[in-house]
Amino acid sequence: MAEAAYDTDNIFAKILRGEIPSHRVYEDEAVVAFMDVMPQGPGHTLVVPKAPSRNLLDADPATLGALFTVVQKVAVAVKKAFDADGLTLMQFNEPASGQTVYHLHVHVLPRFDGVPLKPHTGQMEKPEVLAENAGKIRAALAG
Ligand code: AMP
Fold first, then answer.
1. Confidence at residue 4, expressed as pLDDT on a 0 to 100 scale
2. How far apart are CA 41 and CA 108, in angstroms?
3. Which of 23, 103, 105, 107 is labelled catalytic?
4. Where are the beta strands (DSSP E) in 44-113?
5. Mean pLDDT of all residues in 107-129
6. Chain centroid to CA 118: how far?
7. Element holding 129 (H helix, E strand)
8. What's the CATH number where 131 sits?
């Protein structure tokens, strides 16, 4: 089945344009990272390329190189910031997979021995908790 076209009014496009707020932890010319508002665990971060694509399937390969360079950088910082035992990366493509926002992004999730993930797109986290967690990741990226 053919996929739908990229929608320039998806929520991450609005975040990238600064039209709605986010707790940003990283930005360069090609990629932004910010806190997931419905985290599946503390420190759940989204890494998002600025170039528009619906998901992995229609992305420019050059975008993927820049994206995964930052995914690694953010993953190392998130693991350090939360003293995590491990990390899970997730990336969904099309509704059948569980994708809910149609602008390519990679989930970075710190993991702790024996602690399961909370449900995908579950409960909204308090802004003050997201701000505090973003501060920890920014500090780890700087240090
Ligand atoms: P996916 O199912 O991979 O498309 O996941 C989209 C993710 O975006 C989910 O984990 C949501 O919790 C998250 N999300 C939705 N709206 C926002 C927002 N305004 N700011 C940050 N994260 C969001």
1. 87
2. 10
3. 105
4. 45-49, 86-90, 106-111
5. 96
6. 16
7. helix 127-142
8. 3.30.428.10
